[in-house]
Amino acid sequence: MGAARTPSLISPWGTSLRTPLSVSGRHRRRIRIALPVAAAALAAAVAGALVTTSAGAATAAPTPAQSAPSNAELTERLATALAGDDTAGETSSKTSLSASTGSGSTTVDPKIIGGQTTTISSAPWMAQLWYGDDRGTATTGDDIGFFCGGAVIAPTKILTAAHCAYGYNWKAHGTVITGTSQLLSLDAGGNLDPHGGTLSGVWRQWVYPSYDEAAIDGDLAVLTLPDPVDVTPIPMTTAGDTTSYAAGTVAKVYGWGRTSSTSDDISDTLKTADLPIQSNATCSGYYDSWFVAGHMVCAGEPATGSDTGTTSACNGDSGGPLVVGDKVVGVVSWGVKDCVEAGAYSVFTKLTTYVPAACPRVDDANLSGDHKADLLVRDSSTKTGYELDSKGTSLATRKSLGSFSAWNLVLQSDLDRDGYQDLIRRRASDGDVYWRHWVPSSGTYVSNLIGDNWNSRLAIVAPGDVTGDNLPDVLTVDSAGVLWIHPGQGDGKLGTPVKVSSGWNQYNVVRGHGDFSNDGRADLLARDKSTGAVYLYKGTGKAGTGAFATRVKVRTWSTTTYNAFDAVGDVDGDGKADLLARTPAGTLYLYKGTGKATSEIFATRVSLGTTFKQYDLFG
Question: Which residue, 111, 189, 96, 187, is CA-closest to 148?
Fold first, then answer.
């Protein structure tokens, strides 16, 4: 092992393909692919806007705006990206940092030498992230173009590094390629060739809120696609996972990065390498304070000082996944320059630490298309349904959704994980429950029966993924007080019900949507109808009798305190599930989640208005 290091960041280094490229008449520029050092201020918000249909006799619904860019626009972005010589986290206008330690100089760059070629069938979730911004000018000198890796963790969700997204507007300038092991290239005729891959735009982006670009700490981001991709996602590890990070555990890294420290060439085909996980002490012993235990994990045998005997992530692998078993446990973050300095290791974002923040982004479909959960209500007199979009700590002016007279229950969920918010509605006349979902190909909503004669159900809840298979589930309490899980199949259909436990008829409220306890798992809240005690049931990620941990009392709210509740997810956009509660007089309060599984589960309530007595359905 080399001497202890206290390295600082300098300008990231780039890499080039074997032959300089000329695209669309632009000057010949090298394709440079690397990891970050500095980034500009966060780009403008990229949330897609949604509009509502006009009110009518039948129930309307929010109609998602067409947010997917045309193939021609994506191709133009790819051309700019492919010709670019910028690096993720730094452009030509940014100032770089440098430092030296000891008797020599060590450079640390946010960023597969060794390893072997693999196929997309072995890693169907791998994604190429290309960013191309021509800056709206006719010249190419100010263009920005770079590449990162990523992993599909849900049909519309790409996990990558924060330095690949922070300061950039991926909605306006990004293209994602999935379904191919071949790197984007030019064919013999000079045309862009994605090698059979699927091109997608980006609808919105999320960067870990506490990302520190100087320290490359909290290096995690999620991109949301406008339409689902037809590939098998890879799940993230769970919060509290320690087994995957035990020293000596063999992990796999995937990417299209450099294959040699002495050449700028990146790999035309997807590669993978086995890297043993190293202990925190080992990582800190080499990188000193630059390695943040708990936030980072390093892997690989110590580099030898040359390509021979070294296996490491390198330039171009940035943002790609580190995999143990069948789950992502890390994201390629940074390493030493040229990747092979004697004693060095590859450094990854330690995903288990960030899962509680990332999971809500996987299940963040909402009515308005941003990162904040919205409210549905029904006027008790007119039976008109309304959408109330969240503005964080207030609600926007209501939008009419037409008549809701046929329904006595409405919930929001994304049962098919397509990124568009669905409605689960129970018909008052016969108790039949329907899944109403948007079909982008036809531009219409379709309703499918998912529950027959559920009028006798004491509660119906759509909390998200309860069973740990990354597919949203539905829970019900039957007339005998038995709690059932109806496992989601990922396509809107529900599997055979699984019994959890009995005694749930003691509660007059059972609600849940998302993670209240900040462990990345969906939870439930239940209020005792006799005492008003409110209990948290923490999800365990298991099915059946072990689906929830022993209840924890978190509040006492009688019916004279609150007579209506709603749980729609993350209302304020901070990554933690929130709760809405209405007083008998009609004041609606937002209880922002704190992530604490105690009486401090919610922050001080915030009033959202005093006119909510008129509503008899909340969903």
Answer: 111
Condensed to tens digits (0 to 9), the pLDDT of residues 483-513 reads 999 999 999 999 999 999 999 999 999 999 9
Phi, psi of 356 (to 5 degrees): -55, -30
Q: What is the average per-residue pLDDT within 380-409? A: 97
534/516 Cα distance (integer angstroms): 13
- What global pTM score does this model have? 0.85
Tens-place pLDDT, residues 294-334: 999 999 888 776 667 666 777 678 899 999 999 999 999 98
Strand 578-582 versus strand 564-569 pairing type: antiparallel
Start-to-end C-alpha separation, the chain: 58
Q: Is 422 an active-site residue?
A: no
Q: Which of 109, 133, 219, 418 is catalytic?
A: 219
**Quick check: is 318 catalytic?**
yes
**Of these residues, 16, 86, 133, 163, which one is catalytic?**
163
Distance CA(396)–CA(394), nearest Å, equals: 7
Q: Based on the residue annotation, tell me whether 219 is a catalytic residue of this protein.
A: yes
3-state secondary structure of 123: coil
In order of 292, 299, 410, 519, 538, the CA distances from 193 in angstroms are 40, 34, 46, 42, 48
